[in-house]
Amino acid sequence: MYKKNDFPITLYLGYLGLTPFVLSLISVIYIPQIKDAAQQAFIVYSVIIISFMSGIHWGLALISNVKKFEKFIISIVVPVLVWITFLLLQDDIFIIFLGCMHLVILRVDGIIFIDFDIKPNYLTMRLRLTTIVAALHFLLAFTLS
């Protein structure tokens, strides 16, 4: 699935993907004039990433007959659940929920990816990135309370 040189680009892009989370959090903490906009930017980016990570399962279902139904379900149910929760929860609670959803998706990926030739260094990177992302969510929620 991966070529030898593919991992550095996924590593760089993965960590670059943290930028909107970090900049939004810093803006919430240190720039009160844009606190609300920065908070919403953080939430929107988190929802985008969750939808993207869930959508990967749709593509995996198209190329594999193993756990096909589960992959299709994950790709749709997770974003819909996030949308419903967005409508029902206050921002600070929703941010905690989003942080937890990133962890849930990591766990689901760990189960689903067993059926694919996913390199261990990618899974290690995902664990690190997801841990950082969840921690940033919990830090933002703490900052807002």
Main β-sheet description: none
Roughly what percent helix?
over 70%
Q: Round the mean pLDDT to the nearest integer and report it.
A: 93
Task: Provide the structure class.
Answer: mainly alpha
Q: If you had to describe this structure to a student in words, what would you say it looks like?
A:
The mean pLDDT is 93. The chain has one domain (14-144). The protein is globular and about 50 Å long. By secondary structure, the chain is an all-alpha fold. α3 (35-63) runs antiparallel to α4, α3 packs parallel to α5 (91-112) and α4 (68-88) packs antiparallel against α5. The protein has 6 helices and no strands. It has helices at 6-16, 19-30, 35-63, 68-88, 91-112, 120-144.
Notable traits:
83% helix; mainly alpha; 6 helices; 145 residues
Secondary structure topology:
Elements: H1 6-16, H2 19-30, H3 35-63, H4 68-88, H5 91-112, H6 120-144
Helix pairs in contact: 1-6, 2-3, 2-6, 3-4, 3-5, 4-5, 5-6
Provide a compact summary of the structure.
This protein has 145 residues and is mainly α.
